[in-house]
Write a structure and sequence with these properties.
Elements lengths: L2 E4 L2 E10 L14 H5 L18 E8 L4 E4 L22 H7 L9 E3 L5 H4 L3 E4 L2 E4 L5 E5 H12 L18 H20 L3 E4 L4 E3 L2 E5 L8 E7 L2 E5 L8 H4 L11 H15 L5 E3 L8 E7 L2 E6 L1
Parallel strand pairs: 4-5, 5-8, 8-9, 13-14
Antiparallel strand pairs: 1-2, 2-3, 3-4, 6-7, 10-11, 11-12, 12-13, 14-15, 15-16
Helix pairs in contact: 4-5
Length: 307
């Protein structure tokens, strides 16, 4: 289990599972095997010898000393995932691994979500006797209000298209996405709402001392990454703002899963340039290998140096 220290804060990666090679092929359309092979530093951690991308599903536990925060909660066990069938009905020992890291379910104070896609909210709940119940009974489940309302609008069939001017993909217009969003709400969010554990917060909200949301829209309407700062050091949990490390080498490579691909690419290019050769520890929510690294200049491009 990998962990990093940022000032007084400890961050631990808890892996749910590696993604089977091929499941996400084509998600980033520019990342063809031929194009990926032109980016040699991606092999072997982030791409195989044939140029197929390697991905991971994991959470980060941010332990400030006074609070335990779980950032994103993977796919979960036994969930319905018709949109990505390989991620449905899973049976992974994620909670056992969380326990091995020192965090039992009752010790989690905050669940923090970057966005509401099925692979980021799954361990919000567990099946107990045929009923979905909150996994972390003492936690505040925290989401940015705009992000929550956007997905709720899709699930509820509200006409939110006027909200989405300029979006490349109107997710709500896709019946498969609408159905998946309803399942996400029913299985992974509503039980937390019913238990009174949901907190909706404004954009760029400060969660606790040293931990704050940073607006990184594009993958979803109000996607937020998470900045962690302590004693002059900082780390940044990407969420799907940087979906795969190939987008550090090529910030313009866009994901089919993005709500607004042009916005996502533009914000990513700014971020990579602004943080290159800095001490910022970048923790990728789907990065395989060490999952953490620093952005360094590499000729006229950039790469991720593992940390
Ligand atoms: Zn994701």
């Amino acid at each position: 289990m990998r962990s990093w220290t940022v000032g007084d804060i400890k961050i631990t990666q808890v892996v749910e599972m590696p993604v089977e090679i091929g499941v996400l092929d084509g998600l980033i359309e520019e990342a063809t095997p031929e194009a990926v092979q032109q980016v040699p530093w991606l092999h072997p951690d982030h791409a195989d010898a044939g140029g197929q991308l390697i991905w991971s599903l994991h959470s980060y536990v941010v332990d400030t000393g006074s609070e335990v925060i779980v950032v994103d909660t993977g796919c979960g066990n036994g969930k319905s995932a018709p949109l990505i069938p390989a991620w449905g009905n899973l049976d992974n020992p994620f909670l056992e691994r969380l326990g091995e890291a020192g965090y039992t379910r009752d010790k989690v104070d905050v669940v923090l979500g970057t966005h509401l896609h099925l692979d980021h909210v799954g361990w919000n709940t567990v099946d107990e006797g045929g009923r979905w119940v909150p996994t972390f009974p003492n936690a505040r489940y925290t989401y940015v209000e705009d992000e929550f309302n956007y997905h709720r609008g899709i699930a509820d069939e509200n006409d939110i298209s006027s909200d989405l001017a300029g979006a490349v993909v109107y997710e709500g217009a896709n019946p498969d996405i609408r159905n998946q969003t309803r399942l996400v709400f029913a299985q992974s969010l509503q039980p937390c709402i019913d238990a009174g554990l949901l907190d909706l917060v404004p954009t760029d909200h400060i969660v606790t001392e040293g931990v704050r949301y940073v607006s990184t829209p594009g993958h979803t309407k109000s996607h937020h990454s998470v900045m962690i700062e302590s004693d002059g050091q900082c780390a940044f949990v990407t969420g799907d703002f940087i979906h795969h490390p190939c987008q550090i080498g090529q910030p313009g490579w866009r994901s089919h899963g993005d709500f607004d691909r042009a916005l996502s690419a533009a914000r990513r290019a700014e971020f990579v340039e602004a943080n290159a050769d800095s001490d910022l520890l970048v923790l990728g929510t789907h990065f395989a290998g060490t999952s953490g690294g620093r952005i360094v200049r590499d000729g006229d491009a950039y790469r991720l140096e593992p940390v």
